[in-house]
Specification:
Blueprint (H helix, E strand, L loop, with lengths): L4 E11 L5 E11 L3 E6 L5 H8 L7 E6 L2 E2 L5 H7 E4 L12 H11 L4 H14 L15 H13 L5 E5 L7 H18 L2 E6 L5 H4 L2 E6 L2 E6 L1 H4 L3 H6 L6 H11 L12 H12 L5
Parallel strand pairs: 3-8, 3-9, 6-7, 7-8
Antiparallel strand pairs: 1-2, 1-4, 4-5, 9-10
Bound molecules: adenosine-5'-triphosphate and magnesium ion (MG).
Length: 283
């Protein structure tokens, strides 16, 4: 059932002990099978939101429901059976000595036999293109490699819901794209529900079903990328920008008065729009 809500956050407010109000008036329902992005500038509250949704922060006003049950009241084991969070900083997540041991920790903890654990680790490392790093010391990895190992650790557990805090930050351009393709595959083929925090506006419209924009701890816009990413000044207001290609077409349309009908968000859409509007060789 595609429209079934799996995760629902109602956060009236949350403040850190030093008085910083990090979130207010949040309403976010995530349906089964959705690939949802939380887009926001630095300090807008993305990490705080994911930590509350994963049950790591409990002293907020409101409630988060996972399959209808209040996360705050669930045993961590019952949360982690269904949902996993990849932290923003890999150093907060990785703790074992070697890559293999780190990725194996989750499936071992879930009680799988050693043969199954090894197979899960192999497959997870292959998914993030880290196959040959199993025996490597965690501390000797580069930042982007650590990010990949963190994500492999979650993949090895096979969660139905993944919360990812900036999964593409620190990856090289091809790595960023491949990571988004991997997440898309998990979402489409395995039905994994994904909530991903990011400020990567160029990648988002290519992959995500829905976006919410956070600004100063509040949701200021939400919807499909083409409804949310519409004008540069609105994005600048929340310290973000449009995807580069959208910005170019928006300027050509509004400042140079070229007769584009839409503001496309991806290179592919822009190419079609340009050919249709300005005429290609065959027109
Ligand atoms: N432990 C803490 N104590 C006090 N304030 C905090 C703490 N952690 C975060 N904050 C504040 O809460 C707000 C939201 O922070 P959060 O880390 O959720 O933002 P973010 O959107 O994830 O930012 P970034 O893009 O930099 O990761 C910020 O104003 C931040 O300074
Ligand atoms: Mg963050």
């Amino acid at each position: 059932m595609r429209d079934k809500t799996r995760l629902s956050a109602e956060i009236d407010s949350f403040r850190y002990p030093d008085g910083t109000v990090a979130l207010a008036d949040i309403r976010l329902d995530v349906a089964k099978g959705e690939f949802c992005g939380v887009l926001g500038a630095n300090g807008s509250g993305k990490t705080t939101l994911l930590r509350i949704m994963d049950g790591l922060i409990k002293d907020f006003a409101g409630k988060v429901l996972l399959d209808g049950e209040e996360v705050r009241k669930l045993h961590p084991r019952d949360i982690y059976r269904k949902m996993g969070l990849v932290f923003q900083s890999p150093d907060d997540q990785l703790f074992a000595h070697t890559v293999f041991e780190d990725v194996a920790f989750g499936p071992r903890n879930m009680g799988f036999a050693e043969g199954e654990v090894a197979e899960r680790v192999r497959s997870a490392l292959a998914s993030v293109e880290m196959t040959e790093f199993g025996g490597k010391d965690i501390h000797a990895l580069s930042y982007g490699q650590k990010k990949r190992v963190c994500i492999a650790g979650l993949l090895a557990m096979g969660h139905g819901i993944l919360l990812l805090d900036e999964p593409t930050a620190g990856l090289d351009p091809m790595g960023e794209y491949r990571m988004m393709e991997l997440l898309t595959r998990l979402n489409r083929e395995n039905g994994v529900t994904i909530v991903m925090a990011t400020h990567s506006v160029d990648l988002v419209p290519l992959f995500l079903h829905r976006l919410v924009i956070l600004s100063r701890g509040r949701v200021v816009r939400g919807g499909p990328p083409e409804e949310v990413l519409t004008a540069p000044d609105e994005m600048a207001h929340v310290k973000l920008r449009l995807p580069h290609i959208a910005e170019l077409i928006w300027r050509l349309k509004h400042e140079d008065r070229l007769p584009f009908l839409r503001v496309p968000l991806t290179i592919g859409e822009a190419r079609r729009e340009i050919v249709e509007t300005l005429g290609g060789e065959n027109q």
